[in-house]
Amino acid sequence: MDSKIAAVEELSAKANEASNRSVLVGLDGFVDIIINPVDQRFGPGDDYKAIRQMTDFGDRILAAAGKSTNIEMGKKMEKLGGNGPILANAIQQAGLLTRYIGALGDPVIHPVFEDFAKRTDAVSLAEPGVTHALEFRDGKIMLGLMDSLENVTYANMVEKMGEGAFLDLLSRTDLFAIVNWTMLPYLTQILQALIDQVYPNFGPRDHRSFFFDLADPEKRSDDDLIGVLRLLHRFCAFGSTTLGLNLKEAQHVSRVLGLFVGGAGEDDIRAMARNIRSELSLDCVVVHPTDAAACATKDDTFYSKGFYTADPTITTGAGDHFNAGFSVSRLLGLSPQSSLVVGCAFSGHYVRTAESPSLSTIGSFLRNTDFATIAG
After folding, report:
1. Which of 36, 95, 361, 368 could form a disulfide bond with 50, CB atoms 3.0-4.6 angstroms apart?
2. Cα–Cα nearest to 275, from 234, 236, 229
3. Are strands 30-41 and 48-50 parallel, antiparallel or unpaired?
4. What is the pTM of this model?
5. Separation of alpha carbons 88 and 77, rounded Å
6. What is the percent of the chain with per-residue pLDDT over 90, rounded to a whole number?
C-alpha cells in the first residue's frame, strides 16, 4: 500500500482518540522576530530586495572583515517562539489536551504568549529569550538572547506550581516533551531530578512516553552532550522514550558518540538513526532532514520522503512541527512508517501556510500533496 494512503487510513482510525491524550511540553520560551536581511532598499516599508541566499549573506560579512558594514534587518513578523511553545501549539492544534511549562514572562506573560498561555493553562518560570531569526532560501540563522533562561530550574518549577500540583500533573501526563536542552543551562539537572525524585514514585501508565529534542547542541561541550545523551536512557524505565534530531544534530551527535557520520541520503539517515538508537539504548530515534525523515526502533528502521517546497512562507518552526506530527502519531498508536509521513506532512503544511494544522487538515494535505522528489 502507498505510504500516504496508509498514513491517512491509520490517522483516520485513530484521530478520535486525540482528545483523550494529555501532553505536557516545556521548558523554553522565546519571542521570535522573523527577519529578511535587506540587500537593496528602494522605498519605505516592504519596498526592498532581500538577501535570499545564506551564502550571499556570508559573502557580505566576509567582505567587511577588517572594515565595517551595516546590514538592515527587514522585520517580517513577531511571534511566539522557542521549540517548546511552537511544539505545544502544534500539538494542541492537533486536538490533544496540552499544558505548558516554560519561560513566557515573569511576573507578567509577554503579549505574544497571552493567548497561548490561556489555551495551555501555562505556568511561566521566567522572562522569555529573544531570537532574531534571519531567514534565507537555503537555511536560517538564529541569533538569540537568553540570559533569562537561567531561571528555568527544577526548584523554580516546584515553587511556581506547588509540589503537589506539579507531581499530580506529571503523573497524569501521557506525553512529556522536553526540548531545547542546548539553551537551558539547568536542563540536565532537571532531567536528573525527574529521574531520581519524581518518576520512581509513580505507578505504570499505559501511554506514558517522552520526547526529547536537543535543539542544535553544537555550542555545548562534547562532555555535556554525552552526559545528557547517556541520561536519556534512564527515562525508558518509565515510558517509551524518543530522541528527535534534524540532520545537522544527527551528524553532530554521531560524531560525538564516535559513530558513522552520514549525509542526507536515505541509507545514511537510516544508519545514523539506527546507530544512535542502539548506542543510547532508546526506544526510538528519528532523524529529519528538510526533505525526508527516518526513524529507528528496536524492531527496524523506517524512511519517508517529505513535502519539501523551494518557496516556503516560513521555515522557523518547521522542525518543531515535524516533531509534533511524529510524536502525536506515535502517541495515538500509528506505525513508525505512518508517523514519519504524518510528521513530514505537519512540517510541509506549516512551511507553506505558517499555520499549525489540525489532524483533518493533515488528512487533506496528504491526499492532495505529492512527496518531494528532490531537495532544494
Report:
1. 36
2. 229
3. antiparallel
4. 0.90
5. 20
6. 91
Give CA–CA dist 320/246, Å, rounded. 10
Q: Measure the CA–CA gap between 129 and 116, rounded to whole angstroms.
A: 16
Helix (H, G, I), strand (E, B) or coil at 21: coil
Contact 52, 40 (CB under 8 A): no
Residue type, 74: G
Distances (CA, A) of 240 to 172, 215, 262, 303: 15, 20, 26, 20
Q: Is the Cβ–Cβ distance between 171 and 202 less than 8 Å?
A: yes
Task: List the beta strands (DSSP E) in 109-224.
Answer: 123-124, 129-136, 139-145, 175-179, 209-213
Burial of 319 (0-12, 13-18, 19+ CB in 10 A): buried
DSSP state of 195: I
| DSSP 8-state class, residue 356 | P
How does DSSP classify residue 127? -
CA angle in degrees (0–180, nearest 5) for 337-341-346? 145
**Alpha-carbon distance 3 to 22, whole Å?**
27
- Pure H helices in the chain: 3-14, 54-63, 83-93, 114-119, 154-161, 163-172, 187-193, 222-232, 247-256, 266-280, 318-332, 336-353, 359-368
Among residues 272, 300, 306, the alpha carbon closest in space to that of 287 is found at: 272
> If you write DSSP's letter for every residue of 59-111 in order, what string do you get?
HHHHHTTTS-----EEEEEEEEESHHHHHHHHHHHTT-EEEEEE-S-SSS--G
> What is the model's pLDDT at position 203?
86
The x, y and z cell numbers of residue 99, run together, are 499544558
List the grid coordinates of 80. Answer: 511566539
Based on the number of CB atoms within 10 Å of its own CB, is 348 exposed (0-12), middle (13-18) or buried (19 or more)? buried
Which three cell numbers, joined as nine digits, stand for 166? 506539579
Instruction: List, for residues 284-330, the tens digit of each pLDDT value.
Output: 999 999 999 999 999 999 999 999 998 898 888 899 999 999 999 99
> Which residues pair with residue 143 across a beta bridge?
132
Ranges of the chain whose pLDDT falls below 70: 1, 373-376
- The terminus-to-terminus CA distance of the chain in angstroms comes to 28
Task: Give how far Cα 294 sits from Cα of 46, 239, 268, 289, 299, Å.
Answer: 39, 21, 9, 9, 14
Domains and CATH numbers, the chain: 3-34+80-368 (3.40.1190.20)
